[in-house]
Design brief:
mainly alpha
Length: 388
């Protein structure tokens, strides 16, 4: 029995080693079915998405040339925001996962794709593909879990800094692409002297070059091309980037933060088998239910469970295999965590607020009035003296 199975609240304690092995084989079979059926339908899909996204961006920027006219500003901004979301999520994220490498198209390949994001592709692929997907929801190993700035599990030590994590998370949401770049750089590791200074500086320069190119494109070149509409085009680009950041942050939060999603200690993955790895992906992820358009706008990360089980399968196939995966969950008596977007966002934010406070906060009978709350958290000795 592994450390994962010994955990008191562990949801797989009813499974035997043979059950886990069989579950792994069933999921391998689902993956093989998709691998063997990839073809022109899938290739046509991604090419159509890329072509449509580029036309939408070009058309939106053309409309913004007349953004002094309010309807043009709204139409252009909405189109630009959608094109940026699609470029990041359904195209960039999935292409860089290698989902389309089998096509052997050098223009749509994980080794050559660069996206409209502050984090350079090579850095993101390391932190996301190699670390996050290998060590999903493992505390201290998965940088995506809380982005290194939040407390996301009751077993993590609470500090007074965590009181501010709801605010920190909101600011991170507004500037999400820069937050991604910051933790791809592993700034915390550098500040603690645990990374090579020359390597860190080279990566920092690459990030700054990428940000400079983006800023020049969105906040200098396109506004200037708009002539009299320069200022309104500038605000449109700022708004589109803000919408893209907030949307992306919300979708990612829903994938791993809602209540009911499991986190794991480092020791729990020692000697982990293929089947146990699958189980960690299944229970460490959550889905979002909704319409086909909503799934498309999330980059099909609304099927986060299926994506974590099979990160290299074409994203357009996740909806097709989701019922098969869910049937596996039900047969092995596992919880398939899913829900509408508002519910999942609310659940994730509730967790952020809950874990910003000490675990035993409610048990202490502390007065919840603002003045008493501040006193009890920051100057607990006064409460003790008053009680005496």
């Amino acid at each position: 029995m592994t450390a994962m199975q010994r955990k008191a609240h562990n949801p797989i304690s009813h499974l035997s080693a043979e059950d886990i092995e069989n579950l792994g084989k069933e999921l391998d079979a689902i993956r093989a079915q998709v691998i063997n059926s990839r073809g022109e339908r899938d290739a046509a899909y991604i090419r159509a998405v890329i072509d449509g996204q580029r036309k939408l961006e070009l058309g939106s920027r053309a409309v913004l040339l007349f953004s002094l006219f309010p309807p043009a500003w709204f139409v252009g901004t909405a189109g630009l925001a959608i094109s940026k979301i699609v470029e990041n999520m359904e195209i960039g994220h999935n292409v860089m996962h290698g989902q389309w490498d089998w096509m052997r198209d050098s223009k749509i390949h994980s080794s050559t794709w660069e996206w409209d994001n502050a984090s350079p592709a090579e850095m993101w692929k390391h932190s996301h593909n190699e670390l996050h997907h290998t060590y999903t929801n493992v505390l201290g190993k998965d940088n995506d879990l809380g982005y290194g700035i939040m407390r996301v599990d009751e077993d993590q030590r609470w500090t007074r800094y965590h009181l501010f994590q709801p605010l920190v998370n909101f600011v991170n949401a507004c500037f999400f692409e820069y937050g991604i770049a910051a933790y791809d750089l592993e700034i915390g590791k550098y500040l603690k002297g645990r990374s090579d200074k020359a390597e860190f500086r080279a990566k920092a320069k690459a990030v700054l070059r990428k940000i400079r190119r983006q800023a020049t494109k969105d906040y200098v070149v396109h506004p200037l091309l708009s002539g009299p509409s320069a200022l309104t085009t500038l605000t449109a680009n700022l708004t589109a980037n803000l919408i893209r950041n907030l949307w992306t942050h919300s979708v990612i939060m829903c994938g791993h933060f809602p209540e009911g999603v499991e986190t794991y200690e480092k020791t729990s993955i020692e000697g982990e088998t293929r089947g146990e790895w699958y189980l960690r992906q299944m229970l460490g992820s959550a889905n979002i239910s909704g319409s086909p358009f909503m799934h498309f706008m999330t980059g099909n990360l609304s099927f986060q469970i299926e994506h974590h089980l099979f990160p290299d399968l074409p994203s357009n196939r996740y909806q097709e295999i989701a019922p098969k995966v869910r049937e596996v969950f039900e047969r092995y008596q596992l919880t398939y965590t899913t829900g509408p977007l508002p519910k999942q966002v609310a659940s994730a934010w509730k967790k952020v607020f809950r874990l910003s406070l000490p675990n035993d906060f409610a048990k202490k009978g502390i007065d919840l009035k603002p003045q008493a709350l501040v006193q009890s958290l920051f100057r607990p000795e006064r409460k003790v003296a008053a009680a005496a």
